[in-house]
Amino acid sequence: MNQVIELIKTDVKKEKPAANALGFGKHFTDYMFVMDYNQEDGWHHPRITPYAPLVLDPSVMVFHYGQAIFEGLKAYRTKDGRVLLFRPEKNVARLNLSCQRMSIPQIDEEIVLDAIKQLVEIEKDWIPNEEGTSLYIRPFIIATEPSLGVHPSREYKLMVILSPVGSYYSDQLKPVRIYVEDEYVRAVPGGVGFVKTSGNYAASLKAQEKAELLGYDQVLWLDGVERKYIEEVGSMNIFFKINGEVVTPKLNGSILGGITRDSVIELLKHWNIPVKEAKISIDEINQAFQKGELEEVFGTGTAAVISPVGELKWKDTTMNISKGNNGNTLANRIYEEITSIQLGKAEDPFNWTIEIK
Ligand SMILES: *Cc1c(COP(=O)(O)O)cnc(C)c1O
């Protein structure tokens, strides 16, 4: 199936925001990608069209039963003006994994990857130049059959929108304070925690709100059954460095398999730093902390790449991690390496980046 992507042009161009006013996901570019699905034609009519509001029947299924999935990746501009994507084939593969779990028809990964490349190419002037900035790419699929019957939708829209985003850090990595959630749960075995479906985020807001009220930045989720084993942070996977060894929770069907997580594991292996995926209890982490063996904790995700954790609050225990470290951490080293690869500053021995031309 070789579908040509139609381009519907516009002369109306928005003013681009100043680099220091970017924030995250507040500004959108002039074009978007759209493709439709129905039972007769399958996925059809891939097109790049002017960015504009949608007109949807109030009965479309996404509004009622939440059949919606998304992805997140970034385009980076190198010093010499090239445009790079970081492992985008992983994002389209994960989109299909999400499709499968959410009863959405499979997409042609090649067409969607091609669409992302063409859209970014057309909008490359929107990629900001300043250190740490990038163009965030948000592919998503929504159920658009107008029907209140509960069944998988028979119609969908796949869209890709682009947003220039600011630097996550102002100069150096800023440690976050994390609340270990032991009341609410995010996901359970057999559920949808391992895919990027919108409802996972809707379900997480209450705990995030609670953590913020208590003065924390984000939530660390425990397993949904025993509330004992570590899963992940809001939109990041989590890593612990204990006695020189790095450990991260094993993908168990309720944790999202982050692409940054995978990249960190690969990089550590490449550096011959011991790393393992395992079932880890919060008790073990606390014990390591009490023994002085918990050297580092950090989150991984597309938005921040690496986010060091300065404090973990679990019930009455406060774990202050790597107090007074002078920036000479493994988290820093990983951050430097991955962002250097993303920006074309370092060699890319893993072939993670794809240049758009
Ligand atoms: C997207 C996401 C992550 C991070 O995945 P990356 O591919 O590294 O960006 C982690 N956890 C959740 C719940 C997510 O939705």
The CATH architecture of the largest domain can be given as Alpha-Beta Barrel
Topology-level CATH name of the largest domain: D-amino Acid Aminotransferase, Chain A, domain 2
Sheet with the most strands? Answer: 9 strands, mixed
Q: Percent of residues in helical segments?
A: 10-25%
Quaternary state of the chains:
single chain
Q: What global shape is seen?
A: globular
Category by helix and strand content: alpha+beta
Number of domains: 2
Individual helix count = 7
CATH homologous superfamily designation of the largest domain: D-amino Acid Aminotransferase, subunit A, domain 2
Percentage beta strand: 25-35%
Bound molecules: pyridoxal-5'-phosphate
Instruction: Flag low-confidence runs.
Output: none
- Span between N and C termini? 23 Å
**Helix and strand succession?**
EEEHEEEHHEEEHEEEEHEHEEEHE
Which CATH top level class of the largest domain fits?
Alpha Beta
Compute the number of strand runs: 18
| Mean pLDDT rating | 95
C-alpha Rg, in Å?
A: 21 Å
List the helices and strands and how they pair.
Layout: E1 6-7, E2 31-38, E3 42-50, H1 62-65, E4 68-70, E5 73-77, E6 83-86, H2 88-101, H3 109-122, E7 134-143, E8 156-165, E9 176-181, H4 198-213, E10 218-222, E11 230-233, E12 237-242, E13 245-249, H5 259-270, E14 275-278, H6 282-290, E15 294-301, E16 305-314, E17 317-320, H7 330-342, E18 353-356
